[in-house]
Amino acid sequence: MGALVGAVWAAGKLDALEEWARGLTQAGFLKYLDLKLDRGGLVEGTAVTRVLNEIGLPERIEDLPRPFLVVATDMTTGREVWLREGPLIPAVRASIAIPGVFAPQQVDGRWLLDGGLINPVPTSAVRALGARCTIAVNPNAKHGRKLWAPEPSEDFWQRLGVREMRDFLPDRLQDLLPEKKLDVSPAYMDVVSVSIDILTEFLRKAREAADPADVMLEADLVQVSVMEMFRAAEAIDEGRRLVEQASEQIADLMGR
Q1: What is the phi/psi pair of residue 122, to 5°?
Q2: Closest CA to 83 of 74, 96, 70
Q3: With b meaning 16 or more CB within 10 Å and e meaning fewer, what string describes 192-209?
Q4: CB 228 within 8 A of CB 161
Q5: What is the pTM of this model?
Q6: Which residues contact 218 (CB under 8 A, 6 or more apart)?
Q7: At 24, phi and psi to the nearest 5?
Q8: For 73, phi and psi rounded to 5 degrees?
Q9: What's the CA gap between 201 and 226, in Å, rounded?
Q10: How many CB atoms lie within 10 A of CB 138?
Q11: pLDDT tens string for the chain (256 positions)?
């Protein structure tokens, strides 16, 4: 979600996004869960468009009051794509198209996927915009924890990585779900999330060795699934803690 948060910050609307994210409940999240298994992902992601429109972002990237660049991956060539102008929301939607979760997004005739597949922490892109100092956030830091550990999984929704969702469904839909059972095999979202983490962590380390950020904030969010957006408050609080912890280092950097 780096592109989404970055676009909102560049528009000067970060408080509005935080208010929306902190107010999102499990029941509210279901309204945004547009399952589209025939579109190349678990969800189509039209909710992203809806939320960004409600927040009031400008139509085009070049209309943002702050410099902004979106990184995506071209599904045809596997190459890194930088979007610096054109429609803003489709560009953001492309950059967060996590394989297996969000369907790919078409922009200018190209089908694009999450930029993290090719450049997880794009310091090179930031410097291309003219940044003198770079502060990066790695939301996938494990701090010595295992990437995955077997845990009992109670029902279909928990196997997707979303907890306690069954109670919000109509009775007729609940009857279609598998019966509750204990199962310690990897769930669908476990496989998707861990696979992407393995790939992006390898790429991140390789990129960091050649082009490190001036400050790297390592966020520990391993307990939050990619489909648990209603737990955004935990991510926001972790981000605030990291910045406060590194405040002196950041102040020294900005004062150079």
Answers
A1: -80, 65
A2: 70
A3: bbeebbeebbebbeebbe
A4: yes
A5: 0.75
A6: 138, 141, 143, 242
A7: -75, 125
A8: -120, 125
A9: 16
A10: 20
A11: 889 999 999 999 999 999 999 998 888 777 766 666 556 556 666 777 888 888 999 999 999 999 999 999 999 999 999 999 999 999 999 998 888 778 889 999 999 999 988 888 888 888 888 888 899 988 877 666 666 666 655 554 555 555 455 555 566 555 655 555 555 677 776 777 777 777 777 778 888 888 889 999 988 887 777 778 889 999 999 999 999 999 999 999 887 6
- Four-residue CA torsion sign, 29, 31, 32, 38: positive
How many whole angstroms separate alpha carbon 124 and alpha carbon 1?
A: 18
Token pair recorded at residue 54: 């409600």
Residue 137 identity: V
| DSSP calls for the chain | -HHHHHHHHHTT-HHHHHHHHHH--HHHHHHT--B-TTTTSSB--HHHHHHHHHHT--SBGGGSSS---EEEEETTT--EEEE-SSBHHHHHHHHT--TTTBPPEEETTEEEEEGGGT-SS-HHHHHHTT-SS-EEEETT--TT--S-------SHHHHHT--S-GGGS-HHHHTTSPPP----SPPHHHHHHHHHHHHHHHHHHHHHHHS--SEEEE---TTS-TT-GGGHHHHHHHHHHHHHHTHHHHHHHHT-
